Amino acid sequence: MISIFDTSYVESRKLYSTYNEAQYFLKDVIRLAKSLPDCMFLFKPSKSDEYFLQEYWADEKGVEVVDLRYEFGQLLNTIMLSDADDVIDVISISNVVFTNSFSSPTADALLANVPAFWYQAKTDVSFSIYNKIPNLVISGYKDLTIQIDKLLQDGSPIGFVNNPDFTYLIGDINKKPLTSLRLNILNA
Q1: Number of domains into which the chain is organized
Q2: Is residue 154's pLDDT more than 50?
Q3: Looking at residue 70, which CATH number applies to its domain?
Q4: pLDDT-based confidence at residue 108 (cuts at 50, 70, 90)
Q5: pLDDT digits (tens, 9 = 90+) for 163-180
Q6: Which domain holds residue 160?
Q7: Across the strands, what pairs with 137?
Q8: pTM of the predicted model, to two decimals?
């Protein structure tokens, strides 16, 4: 099970989580799902489709985001979840998790010992401190497919959890009380 999370997109040139990035991200996710017909994909949006269609927040780019979400949900090996679905429930049934634009479910998954990474389809995020940790931030479709193939074959968490930068930036997987609480509730 590959679970995908997007982020809250804002149409501003100063940000890296724009509607253009959302479109590139969704196109890559659709392409990935088509290329792996034997894998099941879940997509958990952070905002409802209505968010992208409100005049205040959206324009024609918002309509395209909604159309791409619909296209993803029509594939036989995909399930489009609701923005109201619980992130932890989705992570708990996932073999691999990836999110767009540094959305928090990647950190949640990593701290729950589920292989995860951030994926940036188009926008340059080389400035990010998270790039200090190899394979934590993946950019471009080719690297996305390499990372997914590696994680599906390996079946184990990504090796950077013992990296001192990871512990500093994300946290120690053995010392996160909220994650421990979530896992205890999940296993109850």
Answers
A1: 1
A2: yes
A3: 3.40.50.2000
A4: confident
A5: 666 555 565 556 554 555
A6: 2-186
A7: 118
A8: 0.79
